[in-house]
Amino acid sequence: MREHGLLLERRRKQPGVVRHHDGRVAVKTSNTRWCSDGFEFRCDDGERLRVTFALDCCDREAISWVASPHGYSGDDVRDVMLKAVERRFGQMLPPTPIQWLSDNGSAYTAEQTRAFAREIGLLPLTTPVCSLQSNGMAESFVKTMKRDYIAHMPRLDRLTALRNLEIAFTHYNEEHPHSALNYRSPREFRRMTATST
Question: Which of 33, 70, 123, 172 is paired with 95 by a 20 to 30 Å CA distance?
Answer without folding.
Answer: 172
